[in-house]
Amino acid sequence: MVQIRIGFFGDSITHGTGDETLLGWTLRVGQAEVARGHDVTVYNLGVRADTSELVDARWEAECQARLKSGVASANVFAIGINDSAHEKTESREGRRVDLDRSLDVIGRMLTKAKAFGPALWIGPTPVVKDMMPITRLPGVVYDFQNDVIDIYNQAYNAKAAELDTPYLDLFTPLGADPSWTAALRKSDGLHPNSEGYILMADHIIGWAGWRGLFDGE
After folding, report:
1. What's the mean per-residue pLDDT of the chain?
2. Residue 199 maps to which CATH number?
3. Is 126 helix (H, G, I), strand (E, B) or coil?
4. Those residues with Cβ within 8 angstroms of residue 92's Cβ, 6 or more apart along the chain or in another chain
5. How many C-beta neighbours within 10 Å does residue 128 have?
6. Residue 37: what pLDDT?
7. Nearest CA to 96 among 167, 160, 144, 156?
8. CA nearest neighbour of 87 among 58, 57, 49
9. I need a labelling partner for 141 at 20 to 30 A (CA). Which of 66, 106, 134, 188 fits?
């Protein structure tokens, strides 16, 4: 049995927005490991609309409050899709976080996070093109485009390899899965419903990076 505390840092997809069961993928992966006999504490630290820069402003203090010395810990960063978005407001218009800046910020976070234990990186997910842009916030338009997300995803994968950090490319398999598209269409085109979060959890549970937290004992 592995006893571990895991912080999940990210945005609305980490939070589980769109899931009518309120479980998202973080609680589902935790449940799966508990069913295997492990003692897992899940800290869902996803904040809606957070970019890498916004996560960078808070993640370390949240780790220090939750991941205690002497207790096995890990961090999972599931960020980047908001960085790729084109934002339009009355005062600004442009990419939320340019790719080079995104790589720098996430790279520094992952490097520092290893002081708390293993650090994993989960990449962004595809959207439904004809359901974009997203206009949920008054006066704010977020436009997510798969071609841009894919550019960020590929760069993230290369950066993770450079950092010797496990990276999970979800964009490629989910982009080819009609069940994922159906789950997005039942929500808002960016966030899936519960069926999509189950798909995400299934990919993560079987990922070698995730299994390394539990199966290496």
Report:
1. 97
2. 3.40.50.1110
3. coil
4. none
5. 18
6. 97
7. 144
8. 49
9. 106
Q: For residue 54, give both structure tokens.
A: 């916004």
List pLDDT tens digits, range 44-80: 999 999 999 999 999 999 999 999 888 899 999 999 9
Sign of the CA dihedral 119, 43, 58, 51? positive
Location of structure tokens 């290369």: 158
Note the helical H segments in the chain: 12-15, 26-35, 52-56, 59-66, 81-84, 99-113, 146-163, 171-175, 178-185, 194-206, 208-211
Q: Is residue 12 part of a domain?
A: yes
Percent of the chain beyond pLDDT 90?
Answer: 96
**3-10 and 73-78 beta bridge pairing:** parallel
Is residue 186 assigned to a domain? yes
- HSE-CB of 107 using CA atoms within 13 angstroms: 16
**DSSP-derived 3-state class of residue 134:** strand
3 state SS for 149-201: HHHHHHHHHHHHHHHCCCEECCHHHHHCCHHHHHHHHCCCCCCCCHHHHHHHH
User: d(Cα 150, Cα 104) in Å, to the nearest integer?
Assistant: 18
- Could you read off the pLDDT of 158-205 as tens digits, one per residue? 999 999 999 999 999 999 999 999 999 999 999 999 999 999 999 999
Residue 141 forms part of a structural domain: no
Amino acid at the residue 88: K
Count of domains in the chain? 1
Tokens of 71: 């207790």
Question: Is 40 domain-assigned?
Answer: yes
> What 8-state DSSP symbol labels residue 137?
S
